[in-house]
Amino acid sequence: xxxxxxxxxxxxxxxxxxxxxxxxxxxxxxxxxxxxxxxxxxxxxxxxxxxxxxxxxxxxxxxxxxxxxxxxxxxxxxxxxxxxxxxxxxxxxxxxxxxxxxxxxxxxxxxxxxxxxxxxxxxxxxxxxxxxxxxxxxxxxxxxxxxxxxxxxxxxxxxxxxxxxxxxxxxxxxxxxxxxxxxxxxxxxxxxxxxxxxxxxxxxxxxxxxxxxxxxxxxxxxxxxxxxxxxxxxxxxxxxxxxxxxxxxxx
Length: 251
Hints:
eight-stranded mixed sheet; alpha/beta; 19% helix
């Protein structure tokens, strides 16, 4: 899906779940995939997200998840869990960190505020966060973990949500996790951002200011050309214009 400078990104299918209509914002339930991403880099192998965990009967009944074993998905890519060098979770909800206990001893990069929220209780399945061999490296903001591989704070779904940008000669692939549920949501915010850049004083006109997530400016500065998601197989592709910072009514 993205390649360059020895870096590649491969999508892993880890199952699906059903989001109830009242959460999906539609008249009917929406079935959503659970997607992880394997990054091959000259510095090593990185796994972004690890699938749906188990251990909460109420969540099982509510979302009806169907899991695909992480080990099997990795094996199809020619990788064993022990081959991984680094794990990044976009956040620590049960549908993104479910395979973490299989990767005991591997460093897991997480925003400090996200880990604190997960450990405060009532947030996720506790056993998926603190398990024997859990090894966290807590971040406060952006970090370049390998050359051309950046962890980026992308708050919204949770305060500590983060994404991963993987650079190469063809551009930057962003693994956006659940920064947006759907690629169309990202596209809408990016168009709002473009409207503000085109007309910072009048975007939206009589309808009022046009809001967008301010961290989109950072993705543009990094040259993001492709964005992939945790719960949508669709891919956003395009050129994000670089502006002089946020305006309008960022959110």
